[in-house]
Design brief:
single chain, 910 residues, alpha/beta, six-stranded parallel sheet, 37 helices
Length: 910
């Protein structure tokens, strides 16, 4: 049995059903092993065993679910053998049954669980059980088609109100060229609300925030006031109170009988000693107190009006008048006052003053309300139309499935109770990446919200872009101990001491409650486990330098010879070569050290699209084998040609596709032959040139006869393939083309043929999947491919590489999550983690609590400005994005087991 730590034992043996359990499991803390052991302990508990089919385990990926099932089966098998050895027949029979049940147990992704629930209760939901699941690209295509239909209808509508609302939105968000800007707003809002249990209700609720007095809105109370208070505290805090106390102390020495129990402004000796400056300092102190304690619009306005607008915080103290203090002492404190007074004015310049009505006018609440209402109106229209489009094709997304599962449980008490009674415990892995809808589903079927076991790490939440909401984890983490049991798994069993120390050092300076939602204190930091192999004092271990390395590459500001990315890539390549050539040792997990291999090394970066290829070129030039998974599926020669042939079959009067296919191994025409065909008939399309080549001439040379026959044979094949369109599905057509052209076998005979054939099989499978989603026809399939390419969302090709290939891996952060490598290089760390990558904001900001933030347009004077609401939403989003980038950086570091290397370039001044 493993030597579990106290925290691991608590996570394994903590009783189920008393209250929910939240496990904050750091990277490398043995999370999966603990989860497996807990499940097995629940199954084998002598007092109250839970059969495996009474446990629900929700994982984030299918791979994680498969791995967990395998581990559970192996662990139960071990207990089964022990029971046989001990002669416990009843227990061995029970465990054997549990092993058989594990394969079909509810250990799946959230999507798979919801799909099973919906399929089993389709009659209650009133849906056709034979629906298909659309993939992301099919979903986007149907969304585009639905938006096109909606806009066409609204452009032609005779409903005056709808026409005006639509025209207002088009004027606001569309460009002179097209209405794509408005479509982006709708897409963004629609996709955003899918992570909520009731998307349409969320829309109406957030739109209603603009109905009332803006001074009473959530964004004002929760954000404006908190930002205001933080600003005041940050710049002033206790400054004025300390200053007054200090100055009173000086006065007390001169006038010992001074009554310090009086309010400062009422102490005559202070006014006598410091002059007029004393009154102004007291005004500043009172204004800060009033503003810090304000809890409503009226209180902020009153404080601002009383202490700032009317008094203007006094005036700057310039003249030494009516003061008894020494001039040097007076000058010292007047300088302090003048400096902080200006800062206070600057810090409060954005605060509202006057009436609530004036404030509403200031933030353009009426104008914003109209636009918000119209955006919600058209998004709801689109949602209804989109649901109808999916119903006609009998297709759904996984988001639809989750909403159906939520609806089933929330509206049907009997079914909800049935599932609640079925599951003795609900275990959720990667809980930091769940969204509000998913969490609501599990909460509904829990037993009084007391039998959920949630595991995650707030520091590793990297799926906000998919709707993941780490604030759910954070809120549960903040609950009282009588509501939830919090268990920390902080010890790292994966990485060496040097790796752990460097990770902690980096994140103590970068992660906080404000940016990262986590204070990286001793509780959050990774803890070293002192008994692991990395601390074994052997000769091999001692002579290797496992310290983390930071490569700061100097580059002069006016240097033109090399880019920063090139310098980083060369540095990484040289260091990899040094490590391998020097026989750097790594632990093989079997008690021995061995030489470092290329497959032990990974190079991580945020994006590999440009820099990945550059690094791969430099590695190859240094004879270092590497692998980079490129998303260039449509650029593969075999795929490009097959898609060209399909396009030609759909429309044969296309010169470029026709020439491409004829010149390829499918047509096998030479360039000389194609030139002769074109010269024979220059005026018509190339198809007609092929069709009528030498058709009216009887006196042909043998070469011309051969070419004429070749043209007729090719057109005959093309006509036959075009005939298949009416008879065959697109997937069947593709496979027929493989067989009849011999192209599949031809590509297999070439170098790299296995990969090419795998890519061709992948094209066939994607076409089959496309048709299963309710889409039909060759024309629609071509449009589907074109839209993917237009959005620059190329697919990954088939990869025939595995862990046995001795190559350096080049990966993005997201691809590396969950993987482990002895040596990790992290590139492009110069890029500011807190600076968002430039993206199109679509002129709308969204927040799950604050709602919808938009910009303000003045149509009379034709100008646009970012409304205060929009600015606050955007600032909040910037913090969320920064959190995501820091979490991604955490995942980069946590992939490392032995040695971590950071690489960055800095300009140096000459």
């Amino acid at each position: 049995m493993p030597n579990w730590t106290k925290e691991q034992e608590k996570a394994i043996y903590e009783p189920s059903g008393k209250k929910n359990i939240l496990v904050s499991a750091a990277a490398g803390s043995g999370k999966t092993a603990v989860l497996v052991e807990r499940i097995v302990n629940l199954i084998t508990n002598s007092e109250n065993p839970f059969p495996i089919d009474s446990i629900l385990v929700a994982t984030f990926t299918e791979a994680a679910a498969t791995e967990m099932k395998e581990r559970i089966i192996n662990r139960i098998n071990k207990s089964y053998r022990e029971a046989l050895e001990n002669g416990d027949i009843a227990q061995s029979k029970y465990l054997k049954e549990q092993m058989h049940l594990t394969a079909g147990a509810d250990i799946n992704t959230i999507d798979a669980f919801c799909l099973r629930v919906v399929k089993n209760n389709f009659h209650v939901l009133g849906i056709d059980p034979n629906f298909s699941i659309m993939d992301t690209n099919e979903d986007k295509m149907l969304i585009d088609d639905t938006l096109t239909d909606l806009f066409a209808a609204l452009y032609e509508t005779e409903n005056e109100e709808n026409k005006n609302r639509f025209q207002h939105l088009v004027t606001t968000y569309a460009s002179n060229r097209d209405d794509e800007g408005l479509k982006k707003v709708i897409r963004k809002l629609y996709n955003f609300i899918q992570s909520f249990p009731d998307p349409i209700k969320w829309l109406y609720d957030k739109a209603a925030m603009y109905d009332n007095n803006m001074s009473q809105s959530v964004w004002f109370k929760e954000i404006f006031l908190s930002v205001h208070k933080e600003n005041i505290l940050k710049h002033h805090g206790e400054f004025w109170d300390k200053l007054i106390k200090e100055m009173i102390g000086i006065v007390k020495k001169v006038y010992p009988d001074t009554d310090t129990s009086l309010p400062p402004v009422c102490i005559p000796e202070c006014e006598q000693y410091w002059g007029k400056m004393w009154e102004y300092i007291c005004i500043c102190a009172d204004s800060v107190k009033a503003l810090k304690s304000a809890e409503s619009f009226d209180e902020v306005g009153s404080a601002y009006d009383t202490y700032i607008a009317k008094t203007k915080l006094g005036t700057a103290v310039r003249a030494y008048k009516k003061a008894e203090s020494p001039i040097e002492e007076w000058q010292y404190y007047s300088n302090k006052y003048n400096s902080m007074r200006e800062d206070l004015l600057s810090s409060t310049s954005y605060l509202p003053n006057g009436t609530a009505e004036q404030f509403n006018k200031y933030v353009h609440s009426e104008e914003l309300k109209q636009t918000i209402d119209d955006i919600v109106w058209i998004t709801v229209l689109f949602s209804e139309l989109y649901e109808n489009a999916k119903a006609k094709k009998n297709v759904k997304t996984f988001s639809d499935i989750e909403h159906l599962a939520y609806r089933l449980f929330s509206e049907n008490e009997n079914i909800r109770n049935e599932y609640s009674l079925k599951y003795n415990e609900i275990l959720i892995d990667e809980y930091q990446d769940t969204n509000g809808l998913q969490d609501s589903i599990f909460t509904l079927i829990s037993r009084d919200n007391k039998n959920m076991f949630m595991v995650g790490d707030l520091k590793q939440s990297i799926y906000r872009f998919r709707g993941g909401d780490p604030t759910i984890f954070k809120k549960k983490y903040s609950l009282d101990s009588d509501e939830i049991e919090i268990i920390h798994l902080s010890q790292n069993f994966r990485s060496r001491m040097q790796v752990i120390d460097s990770i902690n050092d980096v994140f103590r300076f970068n992660m906080s409650q404000d940016v990262g939602d986590v204070d990286y204190n001793d509780t959050a930091a990774l803890q070293r486990e002192e008994s692991r192999e990395c601390y074994i004092n052997t000769a091999e271990n001692a002579r290797n330098d496992y310290k983390s390395e930071f490569y700061c590459i100097g580059k002069s500001k006016d240097s033109k010879e090399s880019s920063s990315d090139y310098l980083e890539a060369v540095t990484v390549a040289n260091r990899i070569k040094e490590l391998v050539d020097s026989h750097f040792k790594v632990y093989d997990g079997n008690g021995k050290y061995r030489d470092l291999k290329y497959s032990d090394i990974v190079v991580l970066m945020r994006s590999t699209k440009v820099n990945g290829e550059l690094l791969q070129e430099i590695l190859e030039s240094n004879n270092i084998p590497s692998f980079l998974q490129k998303e260039e599926y449509f650029e593969k020669r075999e795929i490009k040609l097959m898609l060209t042939l399909i396009s030609l079959i759909n429309n044969h009067i296309q010169d470029i596709p026709l020439v491409s296919v004829m010149r390829s191994p499918i047509g096998n025409f030479t360039e000389n032959e194609l030139s002769k065909i074109r010269l024979e008939n220059r005026a018509s399309s190339f198809y007609n040139a092929v069709k009528y080549y030498k058709s009216s001439s009887d006196d042909l040379t043998k070469e011309e006869q051969k070419l004429s026959k070749k043209c007729k044979s090719f057109l005959k094949d093309l006509d036959r393939w075009r005939g298949y369109v009416k008879m065959k599905s697109i997937s069947a057509l593709i496979w027929t083309l493989y067989e009849e052209t011999g192209f599949y076998d031809f590509m297999g005979a070439l170098e790299g043929g296995d990969e090419a054939q795998a890519n061709l099989k992948l094209l066939y499978e994607r076409a089959r999947k496309y048709e299963e989603s309710g889409f039909k026809g060759i024309f629609n399939f071509i449009r589907y491919i074109e839209r993917i390419e237009k959005r620059n969302e190329d697919l990954s090709g088939a990869q025939l590489i595995n862990e046995n290939h001795n190559v350096v891996r080049i990966m993005t952060i997201h691809k590396s999550k969950g993987l482990e490598f002895p040596v990790v290089f992290i590139m492009r760390t110069t890029k500011n983690m807190l600076a968002a990558k430039p993206t199109e904001e679509h002129r709308i900001q969204l927040h799950k609590d604050l709602g919808i933030g938009i910009d303000y347009i003045n149509y009379e004077n034709l100008y646009l400005k970012k409304a205060d609401v929009y600015k606050i939403y955007k600032a909040t989003k910037s913090i969320r994005n920064a959190f995501g980038r820091i979490a991604s950086f955490v995942c980069r570091n946590d992939s490392c087991k032995r040695k971590i290397n950071y690489c960055f370039v800095r300009q140096i001044q000459r």
